[in-house]
Write a structure and sequence with these properties.
The structure holds 2 protein chains of 2 kinds. Chain A is an all-alpha fold. Chain A has 9 helices and no strands. Chain B has 2 domains: 159 residues, Rossmann fold (3-Layer(aba) Sandwich), CATH 3.40.50.300; 64 residues, no CATH class. Chain B contains 10 helices and 10 strands. The chains are: A mainly alpha, B alpha/beta.
Chain lengths: 256, 269
């Protein structure tokens, strides 16, 4: 129990250090040349993940439509498959699927990269050069993630909804224009913002858990392997807990 | 006597009840090379990590140019760290950037120098360690000796005044190791540096040291000039210099072993 509290304490300490370090990796106002690393990270976190997100979102969209249709067809309410897919992806599946992909791809990569830097004394070298490892290593990843994870979430939602359009066309020959009109009727602006707020929180969790697991590495290469597993398991666990928290808060807000 | 550049006072370190360093007192004088010798597990690396401020001490203090690095503010500690260059055992170059970018990093991050000035300083520093033509190479393209030289270039680029080496000869062949020793001597004479070298290589120690200190099981058992150290009659120093193992295990003779084996075979049949 003490270890868990120490872990949460370490995470919150690292979070505030990361927030303080963010301005220093921004273009123009940050330290010279530092903006290049966030750009590199944005490519790794965002652009490189796009094909996987697209395929997963399209598959999940189709699965949701098929499962929903199987039940709704019995009540003659097949049209509500559109609401199910659109609302489901905007509020829930878009942010969650994106977080799972980013956690698996990038959270583990952060942990492995930093863990290797610990093992090869690169983190110690930064400290002896009077450079802050959080500012130098974590901040570029954090900046890249809080920009790219919401973008990926939007793309994931779009691909999921388009998969629903594919299903509706195949089952009822519904045209894309009509489908999209139903989609825009079913989702509200607050659903979109709610999903984006979730995606920001998930990005924060993935980056900080991935990095803290890397910084915690002690020993040799096998410790790096353990840290990557731990980064994915812990960040996925915390993402789902955070999702529950936000979903409950948004639900209560709608009730009032 | 000159004021010590580095002063370790009564430093004790304890990890989970295991005493790693026991009341270590050590002064390093200006413009000297002090070699810290000791076997595996003697506490050399722990002492080095405390001296460069990577670990908080259990008890005792470490003064660098009169500043207690464990009691000063973070800002003062930053300034002190700029006066200490460290060349790590694994070189610890940043693998995602080129050799010259590694060397330029402290200049870009900690100074306001213009880029053309930084480029000139990086080239001069790389030339000083014999890597003038290798700046564009990535760390994975460098040999072991070149990596260590690049690490030295990064450590001295801010003109730190104090240089610390962790096992500089580790993993190098004798020729490259001797070249690195020459570089250490060059740095001392050319830049008036105070140098601490942690190693277990006896030949390297006698080649470069002004004084030699020896750690044994966390205690400092000698700090002497190299001639006195070589002539020391201290049993642990003699054991280390002469390479005598702690326990000589008497292996069974081949005959006894064969007899044992034939007995086992006979019993089976």
């Amino acid at each position: 129990m003490i270890q868990q509290f120490a872990y949460i304490g370490g995470l919150s300490d690292q979070f505030w250090s990361g927030i303080r370090a963010l301005p220093r990796v921004l273009p123009v106002i940050g330290k010279r040349g530092r903006w290049q690393e966030p750009i590199r990270q944005m490519t790794a976190i965002g652009v490189a993940a796009l094909p996987m997100i697209a395929i997963m979102a399209a598959s999940a969209g189709m699965i949701l439509a098929l499962q929903g249709a199987a039940e709704l067809r019995r009540f003659g309410a097949l049209r509500y498959v559109i609401d199910l897919v659109a609302v489901g992806f905007t509020r829930e599946l878009g942010p969650l699927l994106t977080a799972i992909v980013v956690s698996g791809r990038s959270g583990s990569a952060f942990s492995a990269e930093i863990g290797t830097m610990v093992v090869t004394s690169e983190i110690d070298a930064l400290r002896t050069l009077a450079l802050d490892p959080v500012e130098f290593v974590l901040a570029p990843k954090y900046l890249a993630a809080i920009i790219m994870v919401p973008c990926l979430t939007i793309m994931c939602t779009v691909f999921g909804i388009l998969a629903g359009a594919g299903f509706m066309y195949l089952s009822t020959r519904m045209a894309l224009g009509i489908y999209l009109r139903y989609v825009f009727d079913s989702i509200l602006l607050r659903d979109v913002f709610g999903g984006l707020i979730k995606s920001l929180a998930f990005a924060t969790i993935i980056v900080h858990v991935g990095c803290i697991e890397g910084f915690k590495v002690r020993g040799g290469p096998e410790a790096v392997g353990r840290s990557t597993t731990s980064a994915v398991v812990r960040s996925t666990f915390l993402v789902i807990l955070a999702d529950l928290f936000f979903t409950a808060v948004f639900y209560l807000a709608r009730m009032q | 006597m000159a004021t010590p550049v580095i002063s370790v006072g009564d430093l004790s370190v304890d990890y989970d009840g295991h005493q790693v360093l026991d009341r270590v007192n050590l002064d390093i004088r200006p413009n000297e090379i002090l070699v810290l010798l000791g076997g595996s597990g003697s506490g050399k690396t722990t002492l080095l990590r405390h001296i460069i401020g990577l670990e908080p001490p259990g008890s005792g203090n470490i003064l660098i140019r009169g500043v207690d690095i464990n009691k000063c503010s973070a800002e003062i500690l930053k300034q002190v760290r700029r006066q200490v260059g460290v060349a790590f055992q694994e070189a610890a170059l940043f693998n995602s950037i080129s050799t010259e970018e590694n060397v330029a990093l402290p200049l870009r991050e900690l100074t306001n120098l213009a880029d053309p000035i930084i480029e000139i300083m990086v080239y001069m520093t790389l030339a000083a360690v014999g890597l003038a033509e290798s700046g564009k190479l990535m760390p994975h393209e460098l040999s072991g000796g070149m990596k260590k030289r690049a690490a030295v270039a990064r450590a001295i680029v801010l003109d730190p005044g104090i240089l610390v080496f962790d096992e500089p000869s580790a993993g190098l062949d004798p020729i490259v190791s001797a070249e690195l020793d020459e570089l250490i001597l060059f740095l001392k004479h050319a830049f008036q540096m105070t140098i601490l070298v942690v190693t277990h290589e006896i030949s390297s120690a006698f080649r470069i040291a002004d004084r030699i200190a020896m750690l044994y099981k966390g205690s400092l058992i000698a700090v002497e000039n190299k001639e006195s150290f070589r002539a020391s009659t201290h049993p642990r120093i003699r054991q280390f210099l002469d390479g005598i193992p702690d326990k000589v295990v008497e292996a069974p003779t081949v005959q006894e072993h064969l007899r044992e084996l034939s007995g086992m075979t006979g019993a089976k049949s």
